[in-house]
Design goal:
globular, Rossmann fold, 209 residues, two-stranded antiparallel ribbon, 8 helices, 19% strand, alpha/beta, 40% helix
Length: 209
């Protein structure tokens, strides 16, 4: 499969090593995921939002272009073309204030454009996905909040936004969330164990996908 990974962390995907002040568990997850996917024979296309200098803010001119189904930003046009080739999308980012970082939200706001990524047959109806190959999406998130508290106290806002509010609305129902909570409290060896499990997951369980 062609797997499109959308990565969002200020340190970029290069911060996967245990280097003080330039280390990110999200980046380490990215490295483990890529290694596992390659072992299972998948093709990987990485969008590293911070490395690309993506601007997540929707300006008035951006909104006007969005409404006219025009694409003025060459980076957004490039992202949309890469989406059209994807069989599966994997988002990797930290959860801040119980939601996604600005880059990821801006990616959905600006790149998932009506008439290009989806269509709305009639007002108020479910959308139609215009990505011909897309079969599913996955989320890998890192947060300090324990997962059970995030689910039961806060109501699992990330899956409501990304899965229910975006992909299911477009008719994509093969969706999976992998939550990594409390990683900052673990030893280096324990974190490495989680990374090895992630690599194994994408190497073995994704072989037949």
């Amino acid at each position: 499969m062609n797997i499109l990974i959308v990565f969002d962390h200020p340190y970029t995907g290069s911060a996967s090593e245990n280097i003080p002040h330039n280390r990110s568990f999200s980046a380490a997850l990215l490295a483990a995921t890529k290694k596992g996917l390659r072992a299972s024979g998948h093709n990987i296309d990485l969008i590293d939002l911070h490395k690309d200098g993506f601007n997540p803010v929707m300006s008035s001119s951006d909104l006007a272009s969005w409404r006219k189904k025009e694409v003025m930003d060459p980076l957004i046009a490039d992202y949309q073309q890469r989406l059209l080739k994807a069989d599966h999308i994997i988002f990797i980012f930290p959860i801040w204030w119980e939601g996604m970082p600005a880059m990821s939200k801006g990616f959905l706001d600006k790149v998932f454009a009506k008439g290009i990524v989806y269509s709305e047959p009639k007002p108020g109806s479910l959308f139609k996905c215009l990505l011909p190959n897309l079969k599913g999406a996955s989320l890998l998130t890192v947060m300090a909040t324990p997962t059970f508290i995030y689910r039961w106290l806060f109501g699992n806002p990330i899956t409501k936004m990304v899965f229910r509010g975006t992909f299911r609305k477009m008719g994509i129902n093969s969706l999976k969330w992998y939550s990594y909570s409390g990683m900052e409290k673990l030893t280096l060896e324990q974190r490495e164990m989680h990374l090895k499990k992630t690599e194994k997951l994408f190497a073995e369980h994704w072989k037949n996908k």
